[in-house]
């Protein structure tokens, strides 16, 4: 099928780098064994706020094989970074626990680790504040979050809610969550004179190159960044992290290639995380279920290093028709590690709260949860007033309900039993915005009839190489096996990062344009370059979003409080699906991540130390094979001409958005108890069951 002209796009082609990965041929950032390479190990701050007053490196430097210990001030000559999280080893200031205050460099990773542990740091510790509260005196309303206004309001939501026939006023809480990719944040840096080469694990090599050039005061052409294979990121590798700056700094200091693989136990404090949110939902409705007012107020936290707002209230601006709306955010700056992107930032926690509240409203009204959502379907995007380029959430709900057997569901709570098990089912809708950025790409025709497509895309395990080849083959009108893709190197045409479910849409647009021009105008020469600036970033008269519906069945053990997920179904409307195999993998992988968000994953910020105790995969519980049930993902064919030449929407994050809410709603259906704080761990469930019993 994939070797036939005109059928490459949409086919379930295998990932081209799959064999390399499973046979160990694919090289990751820490596996470039350059001649003379040495290793670095960071020393994290042990106070939540203060200043370094002294660093005793004598014991560390006395160890055989130790080359150097870099201390505060080592990076003072670098330019001021725009991203405050990269201002490491510039000054003695400590903005949060875990901040790098020294860096040991040695011949082996083991020696570097021993040297780091031998470093003695003294501090002037200062009083710190790490407690998030809704009434915090330092809370403020940001002007914008994720490029959108921090507050959106129309009508008179407060007054209308107060007089609504049916009112719901609830608060949902989501704890800090961490990305924890399999490959930790790793960089190998090497200087040759004034030329810097970095092998790094990143979702965007073009950005890394620009940042390093700015920091080290170099022309960009003297910086090479290689990120051919990336072992996961989920947002935490979307921008450069301290590892790449520290590796380059150590390599310049020692004159040797340096590899820094950040220890997993240090990751929660240095590479970003999903900030906790407290979300108050007030829904006013008529008896027939029509919403009259929707108020979604979010309180979250950021650090003193750099502002980041978990934009959880965004979903309420998209999902439901209401004549009165408030979507607002308040942010508390604390002495905590800087939060950042984590898969579906904003939408994942925001949709959990919104879809749980909608389920509560359905229960209060005695209306089927699917039907309530359908009744409040908007014709246009509520805040902007723009028409949707395509919106098939109702079709996803209807098709999912049919396939899940929703019609046979007994709406009563806690009536379906299997011995000590309570069985329940739940539903939730999902949305994620269509995002796209300008990109460049080249397409080259070879004398042997093959083609090479080049773009500095990042394949973070999603199959970007394969899908881009499919886009090229479709535009060229040639079999897929005649197209080769080159990605993950800064010498290739610049491209935006893999994030916000925008990678394929952004890179693919440039690839399609280059290949289409090459096919239509061969007289342009063997190589054609495309740049989508001015097109991909042009304002659209349409509201562009992907949508979905999630259905879940759970069994709750009344003896242990344990929840076992029996079934998960996701049905999505995400434009044209470019590769059926990799798309299904993306959907199901995100749904598994949503399962972890709902049932197992959480961090607690210790207020005394300003640190996360759950700092490894033994204490931060991600789902394992035994936790993953019968899981199914499918989609509705969507023909949307208002997106990009491929007609595609991003699919990397829509799968996580509604999963936690569907599972929480299923637990409520099973038990009759509404749990409003994640995760739904056995201790929390058992306490609820005992209090009700």
Shape call: globular
Q: Whole-number radius of gyration?
A: 26 Å
Number of strands: 26
Quaternary organisation of the protein chains? single chain
pLDDT below 50 for ≥5 consecutive residues: which ranges? 1-6
Which percent band covers the strand fraction? 15-25%
Protein structure class: alpha+beta
The end-to-end span amounts to 59 Å
Mean pLDDT: 96
Biggest β-sheet: strands ordered side by side in the sheet: 3-5-1-14-11-12-13
| Relative helix content | 10-25%
By DSSP (H or I, 4+ residues per run), the number of helices equals 16
Biggest beta-sheet profile = 7 strands, mixed
Features:
693 residues; alpha+beta; 5-stranded mixed sheet; 24% strand; globular; disordered N terminus
What's the gist of this structure?
This protein is an alpha+beta fold and 693 residues long.
Please characterize this protein's 3D structure.
The protein is 25% helix and 24% strand. The chain is built from 16 helices and 26 strands. A 7-stranded mixed sheet has the order 3-5-1-14-11-12-13, sandwiched between helices. Strand 24 and strand 25 (563-573) form a beta hairpin. The longest helix is centred in the C-terminal third of the chain and has 20 residues, at 580-599. It is globular, with a radius of gyration of 26 Å. Mean pLDDT is 96; it is low at 1-6.
């Amino acid at each position: 099928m994939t070797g036939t002209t005109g059928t490459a796009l949409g086919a379930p082609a295998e990932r081209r780098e799959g064999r390399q990965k499973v046979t160990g041929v694919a090289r990751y950032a820490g596996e470039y064994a350059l001649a003379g390479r040495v290793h670095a190990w960071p020393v994290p701050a042990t106070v939540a706020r203060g200043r370094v007053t002294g660093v005793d490196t004598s014991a560390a430097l006395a160890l055989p094989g130790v080359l150097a210990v870099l201390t505060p001030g080592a990076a003072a000559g670098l330019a001021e970074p725009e991203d405050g999280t990269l201002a490491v080893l510039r000054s003695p200031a400590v903005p949060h626990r875990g901040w790098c205050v020294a860096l040991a460099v040695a011949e082996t990773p083991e020696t570097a680790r021993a040297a780091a542990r031998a470093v003695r740091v003294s501090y002037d510790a200062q009083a710190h504040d790490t407690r998030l509260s809704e009434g915090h005196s330092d809370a403020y309303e940001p002007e914008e979050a994720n490029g959108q206004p921090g507050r959106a309001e129309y009508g008179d939501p407060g007054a209308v809610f107060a007089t609504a026939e049916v009112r719901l006023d609830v608060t949902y809480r989501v704890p800090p969550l961490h990305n924890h990719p399999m490959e930790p944040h790793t960089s190998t840096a090497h200087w040759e004179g004034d030329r810097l080469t970095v092998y790094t694990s990143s979702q965007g090599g073009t950005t890394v190159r620009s940042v390093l050039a700015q920091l080290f005061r170099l022309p960009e052409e003297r910086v090479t960044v290689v990120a051919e294979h990336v072992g996961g990121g989920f947002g935490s590798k979307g921008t450069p992290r301290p590892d790449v700056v520290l590796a380059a700094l150590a390599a310049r200091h020692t004159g040797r290639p340096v590899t820094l693989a950040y220890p997993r136990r240090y990751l929660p404090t240095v590479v970003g995380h999903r900030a906790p949110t407290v979300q108050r939902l007030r829904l006013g409705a008529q008896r027939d279920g029509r919403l009259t007012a929707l108020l979604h107020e979010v309180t979250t936290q950021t650090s003193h290093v750099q502002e980041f707002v978990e934009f959880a209230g965004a979903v309420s601006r998209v999902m439901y028709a209401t004549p009165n709306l408030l979507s607002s955010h308040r942010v508390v700056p604390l002495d905590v590690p800087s939060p950042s992107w984590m898969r579906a930032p904003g939408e994942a926690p925001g949709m959990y709260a919104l879809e749980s509240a909608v389920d509560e409203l359905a229960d209060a009204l005695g209306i089927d949860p699917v039907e309530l959502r359908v009744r409040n379907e908007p014709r246009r995007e509520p805040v902007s007033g723009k028409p949707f380029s395509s919106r098939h959430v109702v079709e996803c709900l209807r098709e999912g309900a049919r396939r899940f057997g929703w019609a046979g569901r007994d709406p009563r709570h806690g009536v379906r039993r299997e011995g000590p098990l309570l069985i329940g089912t739940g539903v939730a809708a999902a949305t994620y915005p269509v995002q796209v950025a300008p990109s460049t790409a080249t397409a080259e025709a070879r004398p042997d009839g093959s083609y090479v497509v080049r773009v500095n895309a990042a394949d973070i395990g999603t199959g970007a190489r394969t899908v881009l080849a499919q886009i090229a083959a479709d535009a060229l009108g040639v079999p897929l096996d005649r197209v080769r893709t080159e990605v993950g190197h800064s010498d290739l045409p610049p491209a935006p990062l893999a994030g916000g479910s925008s990678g394929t849409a952004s890179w693919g647009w440039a690839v399609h344009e280059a290949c289409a021009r090459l096919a239509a105008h061969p007289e342009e020469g063997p190589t054609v370059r495309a740049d989508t600036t001015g097109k991909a970033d042009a304002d659209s008269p349409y509201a562009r979003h992907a949508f979905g519906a999630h259905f879940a069945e759970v069994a709750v053990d009344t003896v242990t409080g344990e929840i076992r997920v029996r079934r998960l179904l996701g049905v999505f409307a995400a434009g044209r699906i470019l590769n059926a195999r990799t798309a299904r993998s993306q959907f199901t992988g995100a749904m598994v991540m949503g399962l972890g968000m709902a049932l197992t994953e959480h961090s607690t910020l210790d207020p005394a130390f300003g640190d996360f105790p759950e700092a490894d995969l033994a204490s931060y519980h991600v789902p394992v094979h035994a936790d993953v049930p019968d899981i199914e993902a499918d989609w509705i064919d969507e023909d949307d001409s208002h997106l990009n030449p491929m007609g595609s929407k991003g699919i990397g994050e829509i799968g996580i958005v509604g999963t936690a809410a569907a599972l929480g709603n299923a637990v409520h259906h099973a038990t009759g108890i509404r749990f409003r704080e994640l995760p739904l761990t056995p201790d929390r469930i058992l306490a609820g069951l005992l209090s009700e019993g």
